[in-house]
Write a structure and sequence with these properties.
Largest sheet: none
Distance between the termini: 61 Å
Shape: flat
């Protein structure tokens, strides 16, 4: 019994180590990363602080330049534009914009032309007939991916040249 247990543990350890080796970095890559971390001071300091060395001893490491943000004037212009167009959150419990609350006070937002009901129905029919709709279940595949034999036959029956175009 002990032999079987030891053998199974050895097998698990062997499989786990080969999996880890398959995804590991080379020795040179690890050395390069370690040298970079030492230069930048991003290694954690010994002890209980949990801070990197560059935070404990900032005078010993180069400072990282701060990210360049917007100027005060740019931020002010953006805020003024948001207030003018109503694209600023309205007060209250529900998160919505001011232009949604009082659309009569703000300029109308240009909307892209929408499709007619007939166009939408034609698109839906085409998607159903070609299987270009998501199938039920957890896989997230389309119907034509789950059952390609059915939808290839439908495509060939409708347009015999579709398969030739698809194969090119």
């Amino acid at each position: 019994m002990k032999v079987i247990t030891i053998a199974s543990l050895a097998l698990v350890a062997l499989v786990g180590s080969t999996h880890a080796l398959a995804q590991s970095k080379s020795r040179d890559e690890v050395k390069a990363e370690l040298a970079q971390a030492r230069r930048a001071g991003t290694m954690l300091a010994a002890g209980e602080s949990g801070l990197p060395l560059n935070q404990l001893f900032p005078n010993l490491y180069p400072t990282v330049p701060p990210a360049v943000g917007k100027t005060k004037e740019e931020a002010g212009r953006e805020l003024a534009e948001a207030i003018r167009s109503g694209e600023i959150l309205a007060g209250g419990e529900a998160p919505h914009y001011r232009y949604e609350e009082r659309p009569d006070l703000y300029p109308q937002v240009a909307q892209a032309p929408s499709k007619s009901r007939e166009e939408v129905r034609a698109e839906l029919f085409a998607a159903i007939s070609t299987g270009d709709i998501v199938a039920g279940g957890e896989l997230g595949l389309k119907e034509n991916e789950l059952n390609p034999q059915h939808y290839n036959a439908v495509m060939v029956a409708r347009n015999p040249f579709a398969m030739l175009k698809a194969s090119r």
